[in-house]
Fold each of these.
Amino acid sequence: MASTKTLGVSVLRKEDPRLLRGQGQFVDDIQIPGTKHAAFVRSPYGHARIVGIDLSAARAMPGVLGAFTCADLWPDGAPELGALKQTPGQKPCPQLPLARDRVRFVGEAVAVIVADSRALAEDAAEMVEVTYDALDAVTEVHAAMAASAPTLHDTVPGNVAARWTQSTGDVEAAFRKADRIVSDTYRMQRYSGIPMETRGILVARNALNDEMTIWPSGQWPYVQRDLTAAHLGLNEGQIHVIHPDVGGGFGIKLDLYPEDLVIPRVAQLIENPIKWIEDRQEHMLTAIHSRQMEFKTEIALAKDGRILGLKVQAISDNGAYMRALGPGNVSLAICGLPGPYYIPHYRAEALCVLTNKSPTSAYRGAGSPEAAFARERLFDKAAHELGIDPATFRMKNLITPDKMPYQTGLVSLEATNTYDSGDFPRALREALDRFGYDAFRAGQAAERKSGKLRGVGICAYTQMAGVTGFESAAVSVDKTGLVTLVSGAAPNGQGHVTMLSQVVADAFQISIEQVKVVFSDSGRLPTGLGTFGSRTAAMGGNAAHGASIRVLDKARRVAALLFQAPVEDIRWGDGGAYVDGAPDNRIPLKDLATAAHPGGTRPADMDPGLDARFYYETDQTPFAYGVHVVGVEVDPETCAVKIDRYVVVADCGTIINPLMVEGQVVGGIAQGVGGALLEEFVYDDTGQMLNASLLDYKLPTSLELPMIEIHHFETPSPVNPLGVKGTAEGGAIAGHAAVANAVADAIAHLGAEVRTTPLTPSVIHGLIHVS
Amino acid sequence: MKSECDITVTVNGTRHSRTVSARTLLVDFIRNDLGLTGTHDSCDHGVCGSCTVQMNGEAVRSCLTFAVQADGAEIETVEALSTGPDLHPVQKAFMQEHGLQCGFCTPGILVTVREFLSRHRNPSEDEIRLALSGNLCRCTGYQNIIKAVMTADRIWER
């Protein structure tokens, strides 16, 4: 009997041929005759009162079907786009779908025009006259908290929208016992995911079913459906959401944006399908930003290098509003900051401060890259002050396997931070060995004497993998033997068609070609959650697995009846059922599906159909982890950074597709490298972004990245049936911290202290030459 | 100058005669007038390469080209690589090496790679990185794209 093993196999992706042929169906590729196009009028001011909006000239322009302000679309009061979760004492500062009285960041939408084409809509947008009364803007968190700062929201005095403390153990007692206390402040810059496909939404009226069909370029279609229905006063069943191909998400498409409400609302007033595709400049200005966080840190140490306690104050620059996931990053940052290290005495204060910039929200890692950067910089400083090698310092403080599962005692807005399984010291040891760390250190003094600036950076990290709640799956087998999975996941490049095909094919012992996968179509599956927070393997995979085994139960019961044998004697293999001992007499899936069909042969107490819908629900989040060790060389004249070597040792539990896991690690590292060396949204102090294009916001190209060496070992997770963990965010978490540490190490002997990123050549030059 | 112009363009071997607005970008003409949505507009200022098509044998940015500039030209888009059931060797190589994730930048990269490999044999990693430096990808970190180009160089008989 042949066994079709698919789990753990680097199966080539089923989604590839279509995408390679240019047959992707990204939202702008979905072309419905009669579609009209929207363009937005956006604020040129960082902070201003809206005195008046005159749409008369715009409305008279050729090809214009309508032009609307907030008051036009919502005369009885507009819905508010606010935070979905609350921290203690959090103050509301939601955004309106179109600004009504005030604009609070450059690019904030003020009016919308719908016309025959985007070009005509933009022509009309230029004819809109908005009268503004400019107000003082504030673009930096300490300035925003100062008494003299302009107040962005009347509901948020002092511009502090959230402030709370979390702690474990007795940190004051720990500090009293310290042989040494080391402190410093670290700042990560504002940057973001910048997917290659900008945002977009297409809304069309389905007159047959009296529904509004929405194709969102998003990461949580069902949540978008639910919130849209709630805000527009519709039943959920009046909205049909369909997940298109999505060209990168990274968390940036995980929000309910103003445009997500405006376009459906406009579609209620104008009968045509309405499409809005964000252009790149709009994206730079208004898609969610992330990462901008300042950490004031203090660590209590024993002289042998043990960490006794850690205190942190994390200030997040949250931008002008807190929308859906506004408080999330800093919550995850303070709960993730201890990472894989044993720090039972810990206190962290988190602040969300408002500024006149684009609202911030989750971006790959969502708080953990920020926290890992601060922690790993602080650890290098602490090790240096104690005269201990930074690798030795880390090894001394990692949580050991005997402590697993390890309860940190920290609960964030998204997870309880209990590390379910793993061997952190093994990951560090193997990463250091593979890198050749000892030899590097041994040779570093001589290299420095010869004027070479070479450094090594380490980051050990844990990663929440993946966000829980629930995920849904419906599996059905048709009379031709095709197994269809409808999943509540919403992929944006991860290869989930293939990954989930592997899970289903493994359960049914069939080839992945016999599995069809459809995502987040509310016409086929009533609800789901989506793809974010590295959750789809753990959540979507276990949902698909659960639905599959329920279908197999039914299939075995049908087979038992057809074979006239007890169900305990039915075996499954090679896509069919047989009686134990007689594998050559097999009933294939398609015949079992036919028998299960109404009117066929099935047990009297069994519902017809080889199908099952299953919701996988859990509050236990798996945690992946790993260690990155990076070697860099800094050119002493140009201060350009070259990454010589990049070694990863990671554990993301049971691996479903090794090739795709590697792709996620490398992709995440690329974004981490971008953060460490290149990327930043630069604002002037009036709130104008100075680099709102890809010419001036530097994304890593093929020239900036090395080949990454990746080694995995697998400790199955005990918290879900498949033993899987997510992996997508680890590269972004550790990449930024490890590369920053490597550059810091390369220039440390020159007296340079690295406390911020990006480490551009001009920044490095300043660090070297100021000392 | 006129605001509406008549143009004739050959795209993937088929001749099209259309009247277009003078300001229509080539990428929008290809996508909206001809319905060939494989070519993507990601930055519309010529930096990212997602809009790359071949015009008269050279890779060009279709977001920085007006449709009227393509009058009389021969254009090839990603859709030209494979017209039957089999993928082009370059496409096969990308699939083999997991050289794409979301697929949005991929058409521009395939057009760039096809041109590069039609002019170079046995390129080094550094040469490939340089050839790809005008194409941005946010998903893959480029590693597997480079491996795909090396594999394509080996398997594409040209």
Amino acid sequence: MAKGKRRSPSEDRVDVLQGTLDLMVLRTLASMGPLHGYGIARRIEQVSENALKLNEGTVYASLVRLQQQRWISATWGVSENNRRAKFYAVTKSGRKRLLEETENWRRVSGIIEQLIRLTEGEPSR
Amino acid sequence: MRSKIVVFLTRLRDVFARRRLDADLAEEIETHLALLTDEYVRRGMSEPEARARARAQFGSISAVRDRHWEARGFVHLDAWSRDARIAARMLRRTPGFTAAAVVALGLAIGVSTTVFAVVNATRLRGLPVEEPERIVRIHYPRDDAGRDSGVSFRDFEDFSLASGLEGIAAFRKTSFTLSGDERAAEQFPGLYISSSGFSLLGVPAAEGRYLTAADDRPGAVPVVVLGSQVWRSRYEGDPGVIGRTLRVNGVDATVVGVMPEGFAFDFYADLWQPLAQMPGLDRNRRDARELELVGKLGTGVSVDQARASLQSLANESLVPDVKPFTGTLTGDPMLSFSMLSALFVLVVACANVSGLLFARGFHRQREIAFRVALGATRWQIARQLLIESALLALFAGLSGLALSALGLRGFAAAIEGITRPYWIHFTMDVRVVLYLATVSAFSILLFGLAPALHLAVRKAPAHGGIRRFDFALTVVELGVTLVLMTSAGLMMRSFLAIYEADLAVDTSEMTTMGLTLPAPRYETDEERFQLLERLHRALDSVDVIASSTLSSTVPFANAASRALALEARPLPEDSPPTVAFLTVGPRYFETLGIGLREGRAFTSRDGGPGYTTAIVNDAFVSRYLPGGEPLGERIRLTDPRSGEETPWLTLVGVAPTLRHRRFQPEPTVYLPFRYAPSGSLRLIVRGSSGSADAVVPAVRREVRRLDPELALHAIMTGDELRSQSRWPYRVIGGMLLTFAVIALVIAAVGIYAVTAHAVTKRYQELGIRRALGATDRDLTWLVALPVSTQLASGLVLGGLGTLAAGRLLSSFLVDTSSNDALTFGVVATLLAIAAALSCAIPARRAMRIEPGRALRYE
């Protein structure tokens, strides 16, 4: 989902992580409805039960990428502490994408699951 | 795919909305941090602690900004535009340097573009027709006078079968006298042309039609096509002229069409008649080579292929050649030399700017070291320096464009009165602009690359390296400037030599006129001679005319050339020397205001039976008959084209050396006009003092009285003729002089800048030396030493360069050798003086250095 230029192995990893983060953000917005950046970061923290420790600023890069692809849209609103904040909401094409990606993810993890079970269940010779 | 486009467009839009987007993001981040801080405060932290914690949890804000922008906009474009802005700021901060560089480069680019525009107009652009590159000229190799040899009608027929050509036409230049329509007879240049010519060129007639094959048959009704000049001036642009009958050279012809404005094929023709109408057209003899050929290459056929297919059809020892129609023109070596000179000026300017950039680069060592320490790569540093150079080149290019537009206009004005082919227009077109862009881009590489690479690549500034390169640059500058100045000097000397030689002819009160005796009415030599005799006597009786004469060509203009044979001494048979040759009437020398050195002038009997005589000039005598009595010697002339020989001619007089061709005065032979009275001649008339205006009408009157069908043309005063014939020296000499001055100024400014910079660099050192007891002279010498060495090397280099350039030069120098020591000496002195003056100011500064201040100088 993310674009990259000259790629080194570490950059590849970053991209995978970026892609995963983008997916998580999209998912969050789809299930929680419109949120601002802070809200999304909180939610992700909550859902992952604090297992995921990321710098919260990285959410904003995700948001830009998702916006570019027109999978989310943004409007200015007022936050809980009466400050101006951008609220993001998922779009129709965003929901479609989410479905595809989720499907994909399930399929891939299913295959990996299989592989793991296979190698684990192998009797040692 | 669509999403890719959408993303691209979004990025594009983001570039423009940068500031707003930055502000938005800043606000979002603030809000986020505030919320986070509030949360921590709620959990019990103090305000500052909470804020710090929130900050830490958020992560690096600048990283977020960078990530944000990676997704938006074009990262690379950012870098370039940033560099461009920095470069612009740098240039603004050093206005002196920027101005010097832009002016030097702008002048050089402008100069070289102007010359290219001239070359473009004369050689590259071609005829104003569709696909001009397919129009070619077909001819036999040049004769000794440098003129292309014509073809015969039989050749024309043969070549029409060539496979490589889509079309071919034969033509011959001539003069047409129009009469028979209530206006006075007037003469116009024109062509006899085969009917295929018009369709080959593909320019449709503006009114009526052009010639067809039916018109071009022997015995067809005579027709004529008018050019737009004639149509407007003589017939007021009346379309009713079509179908009317005019008398052309005494023969009735019907007007069938008018060609559009701007068409005057082949040079400045105003009228066209079918080739079949040409009197004396010999359709059979192969050695009657009086036609010119123009052809159109078949689609996809190259010049070489066409040449090969023609050569297979030729059946004689002469081998036809094919070349682009506008491929060559007179003034060739001069044009090439101008182009070379212009490029030299460019080299000087680039060397100059390169030196300046180097000098400035030295001051930026620290800045660059910082950038390297902060992580900039070599490429990034080099890129920024290159962008600076590119910006300079951009400004220089724009000024150069303006300059060359002006220069071109000036050039066109300078040669305003010179007759030239109709297809030459001195205007800027796409090709010229492209050339300018290329030259500007190329000059960036020339002057920008070296300093940029040098600064970017060197870890520690290698003083030796810089100094050597600097040194070399200045030497090159000086050497090239020397070559330019010497060339200009030599041209000036040639001009003066010609000027002096021309003074022999007294052109005051002198007028020349062209007269053509058209063939059907003046068929034989005797008929022509009789008319001219009568004219001569009639003019003699006119009050306002002091004396009159005629000749085949006027002085200063193109005389013919003939191969020479001497009775007294055998000359090499296979490559006999050639001499200039013209036929003149009696009183020729008297009318020109020249006294003969020996012997007598022609009388009206010379050239008749029993009087096979000739007159030669001083140059002839000193070359071929030195030390002895030339009168009574016999010579014979042969036309190298037709092989015609004169009988043995007895020399009866020796004239001073006059200039009869463009450049060198040379050995010349004058024959009596009666010997070969041509139908196309020049009248030269000297009016009695104060009667200049009355002369031409008087001559016209007498001519018309003898034959109302005759007309005068090409009326010019002697002064006009003389200055016109010198135009290459005037115009191109002027150009070279300008180039030389520009180069000198640029070089001088360059030396000044570099020397001043050197003094600044060695401020401390010089101060210390002063403190240790150095005298004024010591310090001056220290400053001047490098310049002196550079000057010396530059003189050597320039000397070699002049020797090399000499070959191109010598073809148009007059009375001057290209290795002329005097000119070189004068020029070298001028250059030395300029160099000395340039480093005088920095030297004075050096002398005034106070040791105390110098030591504290940072």
Amino acid sequence: MKFIYTKAFAIFFICLAILAFLMFLNSRGALGQIQKFFLKMPEPAVKAGAYATGSIKSFFSVLYNLKQLSTENTELKNRVVELKTSLTQAEGDIRDNEILRKELGFKKTSKLSLVPCEVMSSNILNLTDTLVLNCGSDEGVKEGQVVMAQGHVVGKIIYTNKNTSTARLATSSKFLIDARVSKTGQSAVVEGSFSSGMLLNQIPQSAPLEKGWLIVTAGINSQVPKDLLIGEVGEVVSTSNDLFKKASLLTPVDFSNLQFVYVAQ
Amino acid sequence: MYKNIGYLFLAFLLYALNAGFFRNFEFFGVLPNLLLLLLVYTALEDEDYFFLGFGFFTGLVLDFATQVFVGSFALGFLFAALLLRQISQNIISLERNWKFLPLMLGVAQLVVYAWIFFLNGLAHRFGHAQVFFEAKYLLNRFGWEFLYNLALMYPVWKLAEIPKVLQVKFSGRIK
């Protein structure tokens, strides 16, 4: 019996027809609601699974890292003291800055506008390094805008629908954002590193760079506001023979467990 | 009918496990694809043609969840299911054992990856896809994902037999 006369072919043809219809809807940008439905459906079960593994994972990681915890605790206490000192100096600088601005007649720049979004789907097969958010063009989300969580940059919007949008994670190898070293003002570029972290790149060899320095957005791109925190410098991974200095960036954000984010407008 | 409902429920459960549980157990940058394992089971063990629509539907869910161009996983799963059924019925007609299952899994995964690369790449070329996958990236993932899937094949296989048991219990016969 020829394949085209079989029941299998009929089912196959119906599936192709449904797919053609969905592709047509996708080209019109009308798949958002269907996508939302498919992603919302298993949400309770997904959250239950994530909660269960989160507890197990944190229990074993605490046991594994007991030795490091004590050292980290001491380091953090010293860091808090240093930061308090810096804060006092910074407060004084802010006061001076305000006075100077008033005298020179500068207008204050508009404050950052943050759109809260919920992560509907994140990286189920680790295939795309993207997040699907439940906010889209109706909420004012545009391509190129930065996504933040816990006060740090975690990604960029790469695609928007009316009600949903897709954000590329900062750890993706295709992620790129202009940045600067907060302390020195040195320009740099932050790129993702194969889903495992972020790298600070294109810093001249002659420019100073130390562990713990904060890296912020440079604001060169009009879509990306200035001075958004990206992370802090970890280890310098380049050698003196390389053209530019490279360093790993540390961030407290757990990219595999993002649930709520903000889109900076 | 009970068997088919059981498969749908199992697909829901495996999706939730993949997205919620296994997300925290990443090895060499890959996660398992439990829905692919279920597809291999239904393509090889299911007697009627439910596996075709089931494969298409689960592929569609993965399309929406992973943000590839719609149809990449759906067509990949559909063609993989058809191919596996043809291979098992016409080429390997012997009694199925655990030796040929890794081969079937490898074939299914290869077909799915080929469709993702082809369809998503074509859509990206015309500006309709959100992300683009280079062949090198997919090839690098293939081996590790295959091994991870293989490690979980036995438990998923045992879970997938439950709907058949339910069918026998409720209707008294296997269909």
Amino acid sequence: MKRGFKAQAEEQAAKLRKKVKLKTTAPLPARRLAGHLGFIVSRPDGIGALPEHIGAWMSCNACGWSACVIRGGGVALVLYNPAQSAARQESSLMHELAHVLCGHEGTDIDLSGGLSLRKYSPEQEDEAAWLGGCLQLPRAALRHYLARGYTPERVANRFTASLDMVHYRYNITGLRYEIRRRAPGWN
Amino acid sequence: MPHEIDTAKLAAAVLDHRTKRHLGVRAAAGEIGDVSASTLSRVEKGNLPDLDTYLRLCRWLDVSPSYFTARPASEEREPRLPDDVIVQLRADRTLSERTRDALVTMIRTAYAAAQSGEIEDEALHD
């Protein structure tokens, strides 16, 4: 990642919360961020004209997709697979919105039927993963709740995050070395 | 439609091109080259020609071979996306053909629905 990117990502998470009139330590739902950025968020069964059998297939775990962003021609739309857990939906949506916020260009590859998909480099994927994590669970917010004796489960619940993500952010932000007294459950 | 080639469109084009130039079947076949009059008649009746005959006919009609390729009915119903539309996808590394086809339909249909305001919106806007 570019020098300074990680710190800038935390700043961006704080700034965006301020813009939508939330505290820097508050959860920022992905659907709120999407709305602020001018995106529609929908799912297969929210698309009225979509044939039912296609909607059903694209709403199951076996189909293999998580989220899809469509931009251009006056449309800004994020679609997600509702078969995912709420936590997975949040992280998928945040990851895709992070690509948009990073202004990633990527390259276009053919899917089929004349459709091109934007593909990102490993570095761009890393940046989106980092920013997505900051947007969903900023360091400042995690520190705030750690200091107040929240367990990992309580934090996960509050921020609609997986336990894995909570522990990951706890470790990767260095908070495990910063907060000495903490509730049980933090590794 | 049973074939990838729109045989009705091909038949109409061949007949139209021949009759506009006041050519009989035999004369037209001679002009096309390496195609018999009976083959040409069968094409004009809607029969599917072999590949070599098809390519010769396209050259005679001065059209690209893709001109007569039939599009699947579903593709006719789905609007094509404009060139400036970007699609980014978060998915498994390899997708089944079923998912790829379903994705194409879903993306195109969703785009049209978003343009016409006929899509449910879960976003919380300012």
